[in-house]
Design a protein that fits this description.
The protein folds into two domains: about 170 residues, 3-Layer(aba) Sandwich (Rossmann fold); about 240 residues, Aldolase class I (TIM Barrel), CATH 3.20.20. The mean pLDDT is about 95. With about 425 residues, it is of the alpha/beta class. A seven-stranded mixed beta sheet has the order 7-8-11-12-13-14-15. The chain has a six-stranded mixed beta sheet with strand order 2-1-3-4-5-6, with helices on both faces. A two-stranded antiparallel ribbon has the order 9-10.
């Protein structure tokens, strides 16, 4: 079959820009569609293409004409969900192909896509289940509802599906990502601030923690699954001309021993690249020797979800961490010379004092690149259930993590002005 995989265009909207002309907050997602590349790697025997509408937003009609697909797979985060539905409708109108939607929003809120323009919804890791769906569509279409993790749309009726218990087999890591399918876009996948070409590699999937705001858990039902070391080395080598590798995991060092073995394997393979990785602060504090080994192997920057600066607020987010641990992790990383990209969550309940405290914390601790987001109750999370009655904006285009979809304590314009100021705090640039 001909399979077209579609990465949707940047589609999130910005309240601070639209209402107050503050254009420094809006975030643009830019990076290769690794999820689609990995799906494609397991579609041996099919004719597969990827179209990246984030790079070339007006090319879908041309691609559909040049490559009439039998099946189209679409992915998207929450702020892209409306766009994905619109794309599915256009695809149906132009080609009549079978449309399949997966990704993070489909995993957290599958009912959103229970619409006539969508034929199937893939929940959680889809590398194996999507292949099973295609095989079943070809051999026995009536049996597609028996595939765990796959829902056939039933517009007007609730979805019925068999939950999937995700295992290592779902990773199918013997099949390499099809990086070649985005070669025409490769020069666009850069670390924007430095203009450095960057590639994505996965070493693990899922997260065993249960932070109230996080949408990662449904991808694996809370399991933490690691890729085989040899598969990760293979994927890094496939990106041979790319100097910087973003290890695109929710928690790269979630299994310290696996991470240590990977570090040693990179050294033994003689690979000379630089790496960006996600790490919890408590992992840094418990395993500083591991972080030191990675520094020697090329780790140059880490992304840490500090989220908040007090134990009380961390507890409200069910973060399972302490402010003192965050501070100690910062000290260790500074001593090692590793750039810190710090994620913080700004609550709509922030007043001037809370903004001042966060600003002081960022300056005092010399966070190289603070990346604050606005506390957003994403559908499917426990935070959504808690804050549902306070939500005043239901248009998912605004669920970019940079808009407040519940009322702010401060005057709204003042809230976004303070947010914009925080974004500028401590930007010394990523030292790569």
């Amino acid at each position: 079959m001909k399979i077209l995989l579609v990465n949707p265009p940047n589609s999130g909207r910005s309240i601070p820009e639209e209402r107050y002309g503050i254009d420094s907050i809006k975030q643009i997602l830019k990076g290769e569609p690794l999820a689609l590349e990995m799906l494609a790697g397991n579609l041996i025997g099919h004719d597969v293409r990827i179209v990246d509408l984030k790079v070339e937003p007006d090319t879908l009609d041309r691609v559909l004409a040049e490559f009439p697909p039998d099946v189209v797979g679409l992915t998207g985060v929450t702020c892209e969900a409306n766009s994905v539905l619109a794309l599915a409708g256009r695809i149906k109108k132009i080609s009549g192909a079978i449309t399949v939607v997966g990704g993070i929003h489909a995993s957290n809120d599958p009912e959103f896509f229970n619409q006539p323009q969508v034929d199937y919804i893939v929940m959680g890791l889809g590398k194996l289940s999507f292949r099973q769906l295609l095989d079943t569509v070809q051999s026995n279409p009536g049996a597609t509802t028996t595939i765990p993790g796959i829902a056939k749309s039933t517009p007007g009726k609730p979805l019925e599906f068999i939950p999937r218990q995700y295992k290592r087999e779902d990773l199918v890591d013997i099949a390499a990502p099809r990086y070649d399918l985005v070669e025409q876009y490769r020069d666009s996948y850069t670390l924007v601030t430095l203009g450095i070409r960057m590639g994505f590699v996965a070493t693990a999937f899922g997260c065993p923690f249960n932070c109230s705001f996080c949408c990662i858990r449904p991808l694996t039902n809370g399991r933490y699954l690691t890729q085989e070391i040899d598969s990760v080395i293979r994927d890094i080598k496939l990106l041979r001309d790319i100097p910087v590798i973003r290890l695109l995991d929710a928690n790269t060092f979630g299994d310290p021993e696996h991470s240590r073995r990977l570090c040693h394997a990179i050294k033994e393979a003689g690979i000379k690249k630089q790496y960006l990785a996600d790490v919890r602060s408590d992992t840094v504090v418990r395993h500083p020797d591991l972080i030191r080994e990675w520094k020697e192997t090329g780790l140059r920057a880490v992304i840490i979800g500090f989220e908040e600066i007090s134990d009380e607020e961390l507890q409200k987010l069910n973060k399972a961490n302490k402010a003192s641990t965050n501070t100690e992790a910062i000290r260790i990383l500074h001593d090692l010379g590793i750039t810190i990209i710090g994620d913080f969550i700004i609550s709509p309940d922030y007043d001037e004092t809370r903004f001042d405290q966060l600003s002081d914390y960022i300056r005092k601790n010399a966070i190289d690149l603070p990346m604050p987001t606005v506390l957003t109750p994403l559908p499917g999370t426990s935070l959504y259930k808690t804050l549902k009655d306070r939500i005043v904006i239901n248009d998912l285009d605004y669920y970019t993590l940079t808009n407040s979809v519940i009322p702010t304590r401060l005057d709204e314009q003042r809230f976004y002005l303070r947010y914009a100021e925080i974004l500028k705090e401590g930007h010394t640039g990523a030292r790569l």
